[in-house]
Structure formats: C-alpha cells, structure tokens
Design goal:
The chain is of the alpha/beta class. It is built from twelve helices and ten strands. Strand 3, helix 6 and strand 4 form a beta-alpha-beta unit. The structure holds orotidine-5'-monophosphate. It holds the Pfam family OMPdecase.
Length: 286
C-alpha cells in the first residue's frame, strides 16, 4: 500500500478539500425515511458513500452514531467502512480515541490494521492523556500506511479556554498554548525523511471556526501535517473562507461538512456534494 499522506494528497488533488461527514443523527434518519436503528444507520451510511464516490475524495463516518446501536451498530459501521474503502474513498473513522499507551494498542489494532473489521485509512485521536501516550499508535499507523488526526484546536467554542491555555515548559523555558504543544509533540512523525516534501501521515484537527492566532497555530506549526478542519457548513465557516483561514496550510486542509450536506436528503445529496466540492476547489484556485 502507498503511504497515507500520498493517498490523501492524491484524493485532495483529484477532488479538492471536501470531506463528507457521515453523521446519521436521529432527526436526519427520520428526514431520510429511515429507522433509528442499526439497519437505518447502515442504509444511511451506504447511501452517503454511494453519493460521495467519485464526487469527493474523503469521507468521515462519526462512530458515535453507529455505536449507539451496540454490536449491530458496529456491524453497520463495518459495512459502511468497507464500502467506502472499496469505492476508493479515503476513510477517516471519527472515533476520537485517547488512553494510556498500552490501551491505545487495542485501538490501533481496531482502526489502523489491515484486515481488522473496523479498518479505516485514518482515525481521530485525543491527546489529552499526553501526546506521548499516542506514540505507539502513531508508529503503528506509519508501519501500516495508515494515518491519524490528533485534536489540537477543535471547532466547538467551549474548547477554547483549555486549548488556548499556556503550558509552562520548564525545560524549554517558554510558554506555548496547549494546541501548539500538541502540534509540536506530534511533529516528529511527519518530520521523518520518508515524508519529506509530501504530506505526512499524522495530521491535526483544527476547526474552521478557530482563531488560529489565538491558539498559537502558525503556518509553521502546521507545516507538513494534513489538517482535518470541521466547522464548515452547519458550524458557520464557508468554503470561500478556506484560504484566509488556513493560509499556507490551505492546500492540505480536509474540509469536513456533515449536516450541511446530509440535511438535503437522499435524492439531492449527490448534487449537493458536487456543488460544495466545487466551491472549495474554486476557493483554492483563488
Ligand atoms: O474530529 C472531528 O471531526 C471534529 C472535531 C472538531 O473539532 N469539531 C467537530 O465538529 N468534529 C466532528 O465533525 C462533525 C461536524 O458535523 P457538522 O457540524 O454537522 O458538520 C461531527 O462529527 C463532529 O464530531
């Protein structure tokens, strides 16, 4: 398999930044005429995959909406993940896992290992047990040509106080924000010579609603890392904002939208994906 960063770059080059979020909220299942059940989320997910294939490069199933139906929900998610991968989409499982290092091995085996029932191309990870607790998972990702997106500055407003807080690093003798520290702590992975000049396998989550300067995430802090940017669409940011929001990093942003696409319903979703995908491509062309 080719490295995750190479696969992601190819998907972004072919289709532009749009990532279609697969978030089967109960109200959406209802609007789509589907049951609030494992069968419903399976059908919903497969319809979104079908609409996204060939129109967007990346999809992001939100694990929570499948998990709520227990083992049957996970079986539905397995089908959606494998259909998306078979359709050639880059699949980011939005599971936001984070634990002590030894427990993380289980999550790496689940999400980032070929042949696992829940195999994805990448998974979202939380660094709040210390970015070093993710070290072995990130190493596994690289070894398996998989990727990860680590939460740095999330799109929800209530995250700001924590993620913009100053960390006092006695050894380094300077202050930096929590978000900046997360970016610095994962930079070793993408800094490897194997990824020089391309996109590394480990990205950061930086919301499109975030004031990057206030959380200390300069263009330099984002260099080489793919950026997963939720916050477009329903949370307020627009495709045309992309270049201004992300500056030099804009070309490696994966711009995620869920409700703003899914809310149009099954008959109109393919056209909606095409329309949103084109807006992002236009924004990058300038
Ligand atoms: O990791 C994520 O995808 C994520 C990070 C973040 O900072 N904010 C955020 O909204 N998300 C996810 O992105 C999706 C946003 O959905 P919409 O607001 O409907 O586009 C949800 O699945 C969230 O869990």
């Amino acid at each position: 398999m080719t490295a995750f960063g190479t696969r992601l770059r190819a998907a972004l080059d072919a289709h532009g930044p749009l990532c279609v979020g697969i978030d089967p909220h109960v109200h959406l299942l209802d609007e789509w005429g589907m049951d609030a059940s494992a069968a419903g989320v399976r059908e919903f997910g497969l319809r979104v995959v079908e609409a996204a294939a060939g129109r967007a490069g990346v999809v992001k199933p939100q694990v929570a909406f499948f998990e709520r139906f227990g083992s049957a929900g996970f079986a539905a998610l397995e089908d959606v993940l494998s259909a998306a991968r078979d359709a050639g989409l880059v699949v980011i499982a939005d599971a936001k896992r984070g634990d002590i290092g030894t427990t993380m091995d289980g999550y790496a085996a689940a999400w980032l290992t070929a042949g696992s029932p829940l195999e994805a191309d990448a998974v979202t990870l939380s660094p709040y047990l210390g970015a070093d607790s993710l070290r072995a998972t990130l190493t596994t990702a690289v070894r398996h040509d998989k990727g990860a997106f680590v939460l740095a500055a999330t799109s929800n407003p209530e995250a700001f106080a924590l993620q913009s807080a100053q960390v006092v690093d006695v050894a380094a003798g300077d202050g930096q924000t929590v978000a900046e520290r997360v970016a610095r702590d994962i930079a070793w992975v993408n800094g490897s010579a194997a990824f020089a000049g391309g996109l590394g396998p480990v990205g950061l989550v930086v919301g499109a609603t975030v004031d990057r300067a206030a959380v200390g995430l300069s263009d330099e802090a984002l260099r080489g890392a793919p950026i997963l940017a939720p916050g477009f669409g329903a949370q307020g940011a627009s495709p045309e904002d992309l270049p201004a929001l992300f500056g030099a990093a804009a070309s490696h942003v994966v711009a995620s939208e869920s409700r703003s696409i899914l809310s149009v319903g099954p008959a109109a979703i393919a056209a909606r994906i095409e329309e949103r995908a084109e807006l992002y491509r236009e924004a990058l062309r300038g």
